[in-house]
Write a structure and sequence with these properties.
The complex is a heterodimer. By secondary structure, chain A is α/β, with parallel strands linked by helices. In chain A, 55% of the residues lie in helices and 7% in strands. Chain A has 7 domains: 36 residues, no CATH class; 289 residues, no CATH class; 77 residues; 88 residues, no CATH class; 135 residues; 119 residues, no CATH class; 79 residues, no CATH class. In chain A, helix 3 runs parallel beside helix 7, helix 21 runs parallel beside helix 23 and helix 31 runs antiparallel to helix 32. In chain B, the strands form 3 sheets. A 5-stranded parallel β-sheet of chain B has the order 2-5-8-1-9. Chain B has a two-stranded antiparallel ribbon with strand order 3-4. In chain B, strand 6 and strand 7 form a beta hairpin. The chains are: A alpha/beta, B alpha/beta. At the A-B interface, helix 15 and helix 16 of A face helix 3, helix 4, helix 10 and strand 9 of B.
């Protein structure tokens, strides 16, 4: 075996450890171990190409190496089952993310679903270069060797941290809550190490540290130096990590997986390892697992995947989404992209671009593939790299000047009072800052700091501050787009069906669609589709400005704000659930009614949605039948108001559109009648059941009584239920009184006297408002009680002491406001009938109940009848036509008797009799009043 | 120096500055006494990687980039405006910068409603004018003019407290870098020497009182100093400043770490409450800055030293806190009362330690003030 080329370096590091460390044992282990790792990785027969994510240096080294070596097989650290998606990349504008999605889980806990994995791909990355090379070069095979997405979740800890579930704003939310995987994750594995490096590197973010200490020195380095340095950094972070690190264990398992897969492939294909290239993160290049290398142990058993059905697709991604997903500094991916573009130009390399790639610059023509170069023996480049002081990048004056002028222009456009003087100041400050931070060339971060210092004042005039403007200037956020051909059939179908609107819905802006459905009936299907999209997609994706879709309404004109292009990910993810949008909606509705937490109200809503969006039919009946089942199984009445509201609407719809009710509807009414009758006594006594719920139950029972009885229900059941109800709470007591009155079990006079007694009893007076609340709620099931309720409220206002009345008033108002639609019109109408309409009549106004209550007054009112009778007789005689017509209609012979001027004097004995025994007349008046 | 109540930074850290100057081999702009890198080390303290033979303690606590941006601004053509809430250490940073750059931090103009243009430019010694007529001898230069003549840093405290016409007098000083004296026939222009610049401070709570004109804004680079919310940094600042104050008062008293924690926690709680308050009446008038904490602690220490048993107790700290923060009679007291019953009381039951005594002390103080 030949001696290691790194022997001298090892000796040097060991001496340094002995000289500087208090306890050289640990440091010696780390330093010599790092050299060992580099030695081992470079000695491996299968060439390992270490990369770091979003590193232009990696990309550049990759292009150069691919052109030089022209490998026949490229192994890539990416989930193996994502491979079929790679060819679709050429139909997209990068950055996009490869996505695997599963909503029907088998082998994972149901509550963890839906599962989603994303692997973003940017143009400036080394892996894209490898992919583009492999896919567009004939005879080259690309093999993804990392564990499948199923294993990603198998290996995740049992309880992932779900603390931060908040939806991020804007482009950062492009990946949703998917788990991110990416190639070449290279970052310190514990916070203290990172903080230490940042502190001593005098930088603020990890990206900035990487750029200054690794990226810049490596951009110009030769391939050997690049490899050795990357493996060394990978080894450093690998060795400096917590002992019991779950993530470390997972990483090792992945390495075993990848090496096992590569050996399997090499054996199966018989390829010479010298013609292969293994592209992996630098962290994995410094692996020490037994399976490492072509001669590694074959002891790793790959666990089978679960039975979960995974669906694959591409979704749009963006620089900011990548930064948010992987915890990178804001703007760092954009800066990396800009650095890549610049490096490509400066070093005159021709990067690989997938044939037909949307939005990408075409590679220079005439770049011929050179003859493959064989590998030279490994030479120690590390010693030189580590011993050499950092080579400071020279000031690129033209670039900095360009930035300064551009930032001032941008600032001015965003409301800042910036001028050329500011551009000069930013230029000067950038150089000074870079000098203070020990750099020859101001980095984008120095420039941003300088711009903030010189341009930002005490307030931000517009929407964007200077730091944000700097990010825009240095590349800005780039948002990818998935091409039409690469989309799932559902998304294509949606775009096709919305074509009649004549809008370019693929673009990322808000489109206004105006649909005149009367003039252009061919747009009705578009409207139907938009309503379904509104139901399924995020709120801002499809937003109606004008127009509603409710039962019993027919659309005439609609106006929509459509941002489907911006929410492409949501649309593509819908494609994982079905082939057409209707199928997805059907699935969602079915899922909602079969959910363990589903209630009858949810099922009724699903029924309503199926009528509105899918046009009813058998599917609606299926949902309706499920609603009946759910109602019968319910043990609480919490949803009773919602159930009542929805079933009323549905009954009205069916009565208007069909000759007879569907079977499930009839069944729902009869089941509901029996169900609520059964639950009524318990609900009245149960403390947790509110008055509103009981009122809704009574509403169901009374308003659908006719239909229920016609369908075979027994009224005795309701009477019994009400008789069995013995509530203690005042509001519920009032409700049960109202119910008894409605059933004829409690006459109004008795009800009134009970309430009067309550008002007269000083011990009960404080609770009287609660009784009134009960009566207000009873307006729905027993609308006939409205005059009585008005009477009671009026009496309460008159009789209740301020201490009781005033605290109750706000409560009354809030109750009425909350349930205003149901109760207020009834109350107002009744109050309008009861109280005088103008101010003048208030003085002489006597409340009707006061008239009824005093017998003397009753007598007076009766004796006052004759003059009015006389007036009536006069009126009728003056206008006989109406009476003649009625008589004719009833078949009586028309004929008029003359009246005596004394008008009614001949009925004197009747009047006298009535005056002597007013009881009967008062009872009749009351009865009439009650109606 | 011993008979000075408070020595300016250049005197207090004279020995350290001398040493830094002796080892400084970096490029120095204008007539600066230290290079930008050394100034940063002087203010933020040294680290091993700086390769210095002695340790330089940290004197200002905050983000490194604020200091760097401030230094480079002073090396450029523009003035520096430090803006932030009261008590965030703006003036202290300005003093340290001036001391490190030119060893003179005392050329200060204090901006008030009564500041006139004379305070910025020059005024006349009336007796001398009567005796000898108007001449350079009978002229009294302002601190800013002195700074121009010497090529050093002039300071303008609370810039936004002075009226707009006074502020605008700075425009010509910052652009043309000279002041003309029309009263004199010759030698009537004072030119600024290289190294002259201005560090101004402004209180962000005073925004709207006397807004800066756009012309003046353009001549200043703004560096916003936020309130320190990092508990560790805040503890460092409070400890650093309190030790300094104790030294100044020649008091030997130990500051128990548990009490410091209580103080920091209380301020953190009150800041959270202020952040979620809907209106001004629901938050304390105080900005709850780090300086305010130092004030509370100093007050408590002095009270313990002179009226107590020379040991700082939680009760004294609580009454000092209530006394310092209750500025508006019904509103602030109501907020503190709510805080004491809603937060301190449960915490004293849960955590124990010094909290019960803190609770009792605060209650008594609130009762006394109510």
């Amino acid at each position: 075996m030949s001696p290691s080329p790194f022997g001298a370096l090892r000796e040097q590091l060991l001496d340094a450890a002995a000289a500087f460390a208090d306890d050289p044992g640990a440091l010696t282990g780390i330093l010599s171990g790092m050299v060992d790792d580099v030695d081992r990785a470079l000695a491996e027969k299968l060439e390992i190409f270490p990369v770091c994510h979003h590193s232009p240096a990696s990309g550049l080294a990759m292009v150069r190496r691919l052109r030089e070596k022209q490998p026949k097989v490229v192994y890539l650290e990416l989930c193996e089952d994502l491979q079929p998606l790679l060819t679709e990349l050429r139909r997209c504008r990068l950055p996009v993310a490869l996505q695997a999605f599963a909503s029907e889980l088998d082998g994972f806990p149901n509550e963890s679903g839906p599962l989603s994995v994303v692997a973003p791909v940017t143009e400036a990355s080394a892996e894209y270069q490898a992919i583009a090379y492999a896919l567009d070069t004939p005879g080259v095979e690309l093999v993804l060797v990392d564990r499948s997405v199923d294993h990603v979740f198998q290996w995740l800890p049992a309880e992932p941290d779900k603390s931060d579930k908040s939806e991020k704003p804007g482009e950062e939310a492009l990946h949703g809550d998917a788990v991110g995987v990416e190639i070449g994750d290279l970052r310190p594995r514990f916070a203290e190490l990172e903080a230490y490096l940042l502190h001593h590197g005098k930088v603020r973010h990890w990206s900035e540290w990487w750029d200054q200490y690794v990226e810049q020195p490596l951009v110009d380095a030769d391939y050997d130096t690049y490899r050795q340095v990357m493996v060394m950094i990978g080894s450093l972070f690998r060795r400096l990590r917590p002992n019991h690190d779950d993530r470390g264990d997972r990483d090792e398992a992945r390495e075993r997986y990848m090496w096992t897969r590569m050996r399997e492939h090499l054996t199966a294909s018989g390829t010479d390892p010298g013609d292969c290239l293994y592209v992996c993160g630098a962290f994995h290049a410094a692996s020490r697992v037994e399976e490492f290398g072509l001669s590694g142990a074959d002891t790793f058993e790959i666990a089978p995947r679960t039975a979960t059905r995974w669906l694959y697709g591409l979704i749009p991604s963006s620089h900011s989404a990548i930064e948010a997903q992987f915890g990178l500094a804001s703007g760092s991916v954009s800066i990396a992209a800009a650095t890549w573009a610049k490096a490509v130009q400066r070093h005159r390399v021709s990067p690989y671009v997938l044939e037909g790639q949307q939005g990408a610059k075409k590679p220079r023509k005439g770049t011929k593939a050179a003859a493959p170069v064989s590998r030279e023996p490994v030479v120690d480049r590390l010693s030189g790299f580590l011993a050499r002081p950092p080579v400071l990048d020279e000031l690129d004056e033209a670039e900095l000047l360009g930035w300064c002028v551009e930032i001032v222009r941008l600032a001015r456009r965003n409301g800042y009072l910036a001028s050329t003087a500011d551009a000069i100041a930013v230029f000067e400050t950038s150089i000074l800052l870079a000098g203070l931070r020990g750099r020859g060339r101001p980095t984008p971060y120095d420039f941003a700091d300088a711009a903030v210092t010189c341009i930002e004042k005490d307030t931000v005039p517009g929407r964007r501050d200077v730091r944000r403007l700097c990010e825009i200037l240095l590349g800005g956020d780039r948002i990818g787009q998935v091409g039409y051909e690469a989309m799932p059939p559902l998304a294509k179908d949606v775009y096709d069906r919305l074509k009649p609107l004549g809008l370019e819905l693929g673009t990322r802006k808000v489109h206004r669609a105006l649909l005149d459905l009367t003039a252009n009936p061919e747009l009705v299907p578009c409207s139907d589709l938009l309503w379904i999209l509104r139901r399924l997609m995020p709120e801002r994706a499809v937003r109606p400005i004008m127009g509603t879709r409710r039962l019993g309404e027919r659309p005439i004109q609609e106006s929509w704000d459509l941002a489907i292009g911006e929410y492409q990910r949501s649309l593509i993810e819908l494609g994982y659930e079905g082939v057409t949008i209707e199928q997805v909606l059907r699935g969602r509705l079915r899922q909602s009614v079969h959910d363990p937490k589903a209630t009858a109200a949810v099922a009724l809503q699903a029924v309503e949605d199926s009528i509105l969006y899918l046009g009813g039919g058998r599917f609606t009946d299926e949902l309706g039948e499920r609603a009946v089942e759910l109602l019968a199984a319910e043990r609480t009445v919490d949803d009773a108001p919602e159930v009542l509201r929805r079933i009323r609407g549905l009954l009205a719809h069916y009565r208007a559109t069909r000759p007879e009710l569907p079977e499930w509807c009839a069944s729902f009414v009869t089941t509901g009648y029996a169900h609520y009758c059964t639950l009524l006594p318990t609900a009245f006594t149960d403390e947790e059941t509110g008055v509103r719920q009981i009122a809704a139950m009574l509403g169901f029972l009374f308003t659908m009584e006719g239909l229920a009885l016609a369908l075979g229900c027994d009224r005795a059941q309701l009477e019994l239920a009400v008789r069995q109800s013995h509530p203690e709470a005042p509001a519920k007591t009032a409700l049960v009184w109202a119910a008894r009155n409605r059933l004829g079990l409690l006459p109004l006079a008795e009800l009134r006297s009970r309430c009067d007694e309550l008002l007269a009893n000083p011990l009960v007076v404080p609770t009287f408002p609660l009784y009134l609340s009960g009566f207000v709620q009873a307006l729905e099931p027993v609308p006939g009680l409205a005059p009585f309720t008005v009477e009671m409220i009026s009496k309460a206002f008159g009789a209740l002491p301020d201490a009781v009345l005033l605290p109750w008033l706000p409560k009354l108002i809030t109750t009425l406001r909350e349930h205003g639609q149901e109760h207020v019109p009834t109350l107002i109408r009744e109050a309008g009938r009861t109280f005088p309409a103008d101010l003048a009549s208030v003085d002489t106004w006597v409340p009707p109940w006061a008239v009824r209550a005093e017998p003397g007054t009753a007598k007076a009112s009766l004796t006052a009848v004759p003059p009015s009778a006389a007036e009536t007789a006069g009126l009728l005689a003056a206008h006989p036509a109406a009476c003649d017509a009625v008589a004719e209609l009833l078949g009586c012979e028309p004929g008029w008797r003359p009246t005596t001027p004394s008008g009614g004097a001949e009925h004197g004995e009747v009047m006298a009799l009535q005056a002597r025994y007013p009881g009967a007349a008062v009872a009749v008046a009351e009865l009439l009043g009650a109606r | 120096m011993s008979d000075m109540l408070r020595a300016p930074a250049e005197m207090k850290f004279a020995e350290e500055l001398d040493w830094l100057e002796s080892v400084d081999d970096g490029p120095k702009p204008f007539s600066w006494r230290l290079s930008p890198r050394m100034i940063r080390i002087f203010i933020l303290g040294s680290e091993r990687s700086d390769g210095l033979d002695r340790e330089i303690p940290q004197k200002w606590f905050g983000d490194r980039s604020f200091v760097e941006r401030s230094i480079v601004t002073l090396a450029s053509d523009r003035g520096l405006l430090l803006i932030g809430d009261p008590g965030t250490g703006k003036s202290w940073l300005a003093e340290l910068l001036a001391a490190a750059i030119c060893r003179n931090s005392t050329l200060v103009v204090q901006g008030t409603a009564g500041t006139t243009e004379d305070h910025i430019k020059y005024s006349w010694n009336v007796s001398m004018v009567i005796a000898k007529g108007q001449s350079r001898q009978s002229m009294i230069p302002s601190p800013i003019m002195t700074a121009m003549e010497q090529g050093v840093i002039g300071r303008f405290e609370e810039l936004t407290r002075s009226t707009s016409d006074v502020q605008d007098a700075l425009i010509s000083i910052l652009s043309e870098k000279y002041v003309s004296i029309p009263e004199l026939d010759d030698d009537n222009i004072v030119f600024a020497k290289p190294g002259f610049s201005i560090i101004a401070t402004a209180n962000s709570r005073d925004r709207g009182v006397n807004d800066l004109s756009s012309a003046l804004k353009r001549r200043f680079n703004f560096v916003r100093i936020p309130v320190v919310t990092n508990k560790r940094s805040e503890a460092e600042i409070v400890r650093f400043r309190t030790v300094e104050l104790l030294k100044r008062h020649r008091i030997e008293l130990e500051l128990p770490p548990t009490l410091l924690d209580i103080l920091l926690q209380s301020f953190a709680d009150l800041r959270t409450a202020a952040a979620s308050a809907g209106s001004d009446d629901e938050k304390l008038e105080s900005a709850l800055s780090t300086a305010e904490q130092i004030g509370v602690l100093e007050d408590a220490i002095l009270h313990s030293h002179f009226f107590g048993d020379r040991t700082l107790r939680a009760g004294t700290l609580a009454s000092s806190l209530v006394g310092s923060l209750a500025r508006r009679s019904p509103e602030d007291l109501a907020i503190l009362n709510k805080y004491w019953h809603g937060v301190v009381e449960p915490r004293s039951k849960k955590d124990g330690g010094e909290w019960p005594e803190f609770l009792e002390g605060g209650r008594q103080a609130i009762a006394t003030l109510s």
